[in-house]
Amino acid sequence: LSVIAEVEPRVADAIGAELADQRASLKLIASENYASPAVLLTMGTWLSDKYAEGTVGHRFYAGCQNVDTVEGLAAEHARELFGAPHAYVQPHSGIDANLVAFWAVLAQRIESPALERAGVRHVNDLTDEDWATLRHALGDQRMLGMSLDAGGHLTHGFRPNISGKMFAQSSYGTDPETGLLDYDAVRARAREFRPLILMAGYSAYPRRVDFAKMREIADEVGATLVVDMAHFAGLVAGKVFTGDFDPVPHAHVVTSTSHKSLRGPRGGFVLCQPEYADAVDRGCPMVLGGPLPHVMAAKAVAFAEARRPQFAGYAQTVVDNAVALAEGLSRRGARLVTGGTENHLVLLDVSTFGLTGRQAESALLDAGIVTNRNAIPADPNGAWYTSGVRLGTPALTTRGFGAAEFDRTAELVVDVLSHTSPTATRDGSPSKAKYAVDGGVADKTRAAAAEL
Ligand code: PLP
């Protein structure tokens, strides 16, 4: 830090403050974790300085032999770790990984046959007229994904994201009674909508997904099954999700982040069946800028860590801890979407405390508990204020928490929310953001959180 402080001390201070914050609070954000020192150190190296557009052994820049080594290792570890035929480790983030996958499906399913028909051998040979035809064809393509309030992600065809512009979108939700995915309803929607891409995967669904069933549905309607395992990649790597619950043998294409439950550097990657490999490898320059060699190297290190036997123990503990957290919350009267969890996250309906998600999130933060507000199915407060708070166990499990610590965490969460009330704005109108938390309880909880 002293080296950084010599140049810009305010950055060094912010880095130090972040470490202090992360140590003093309870990090329950389901998409966050603590990467190992080996992963962090790998990112802070001179590999960062190298340009390496292209793929291993086929670069548009000279002198890429060391980048070839780290990219090759990251891809090899990813293939071995997940049992995938092909891995592409260049995406800079989860959103980028999805974009690579979507273009690859369009290229493999639409572009290639269209080019063949037109007698064009390479995409670079397309005339303006060909492109116009292609754009028209792309405009008619459809994506079916999980709705946002059921736990889906913005990149699964929703309007604020480019996927919602590239595809006509429709979504499937969860059963209003149980909160669980209803595969018959997904099948019925798919038969009606005939998507090119059936998207599976989630950001806030607290249960496992049967990917064998999703593949059956995709096959029935001629769709490509793309699974976004960003959230639960660590549980797949750690062999907690196996058989029908492992997306890799069932999906045509799997996308992921490397930084959530997988505990690697911030980034993305794509796994796919061989027929999609060429199109996936065109990610850069099709939709990605030059790869980040230092991050690909850190992915190689993280995947190597995840191949160690200890990682399977970690992944199982993440789920056991989520169950302990869910039970601790339920036992104290909290309502959970779906009634519990089978993965690394719990979705808490805070309306029973008389709060919006926004109020609950802020009150918990005041008390040293870091969460994020999240919509629940059919949320009356919409995606901004919400009625839920999402809690995840990957980060605190890395810190060594077990069931007892998570039960205590549940106690602290319920205590804070029970001592928080909504307040009105200055002119007396009701507010979905303003709240008052009992100062004594917040102080006591902050101290308890720092000690845990
Ligand atoms: N996919 C899913 C399911 C996610 O939950 C997220 C992020 O939260 C992403 C993709 C996007 O990842 P990134 O922030 O790395 O672009």
UniProtKB/TrEMBL annotation:
It catalyses: (6R)-5,10-methylene-5,6,7,8-tetrahydrofolate + glycine + H2O = (6S)-5,6,7,8-tetrahydrofolate + L-serine. The keyword Methyltransferase applies. GO terms for cellular component: cytosol. It is found in: Cytoplasm. Pathway: One-carbon metabolism; tetrahydrofolate interconversion; Amino-acid biosynthesis; glycine biosynthesis; glycine from L-serine: step 1/1. The record marks H259 as: Plays an important role in substrate specificity. One of its GO terms (biological process) is methylation. The modification N6-(pyridoxal phosphate)lysine is found at K260. Its cofactor is pyridoxal 5'-phosphate. The keyword Cell membrane does not apply. HAMAP family: SHMT (MF_00051). This is Serine hydroxymethyltransferase. It comes from Geodermatophilus saharensis.
